[in-house]
Design a protein that fits this description.
Layout (H helix, E strand, L loop, with lengths): L13 H4 L6 H4 L2 E6 L15 E7 L2 E7 L10 E10 L16 H17 L20
Antiparallel strand pairs: 1-2, 2-3, 3-4
């Protein structure tokens, strides 16, 4: 049996499912939100691109760019400073937080996104991957 070593962006949520306390490492972990799309086609800009558009630490979500939907023909909007939302108090992400109150968090997330993007070995949407590590056992 071949040993397959791939780093996937995921988290063990068994502590939540079994009512146990989460570690500070789990709470402070940065989760990345990739926009699926195609960098150079078949659906070129503005329909989508493959990049990290947001990240979440704890209950704060940081949006670097927004768009109505992946393949809609509207312009992607970049945000500098990024949009921030408290996802527990505002799950609809309707009321942005003041970025001036979160400058340290924004810097941390920007660095984490850069490191994460440098760590991945794929540069295309995973839906197009044909790597056996990602094919379900029922295939």
């Amino acid at each position: 049996k071949d040993s397959i070593s791939k780093e996937l962006d995921g988290i063990d949520i068994s502590a939540i499912l079994f009512g146990q306390e989460l570690s500070s490492e789990d709470i402070d972990r940065v989760l990345f939100f990739w926009r699926d799309g195609f960098r150079d086609g078949p659906l070129g800009p503005p329909y989508g691109r493959f990049d990290v558009v947001a990240a979440k630490v704890g209950q704060v979500k940081v949006w670097f760019s927004t768009k109505s939907a992946h393949y809609n023909n509207d312009v992607e909007v970049s945000h500098d400073p990024p949009l921030l939302f408290d996802t527990l108090i505002d799950p609809a992400e309707a009321y942005p937080l003041d970025p001036n109150d979160y400058t340290e968090l924004i810097d941390r997330v920007r660095n984490a996104v850069q490191q994460h993007k440098e760590s991945v070995e794929w540069t295309y949407p995973l839906a197009l991957a044909r790597d056996p590590a990602f094919i379900p056992c029922v295939d």
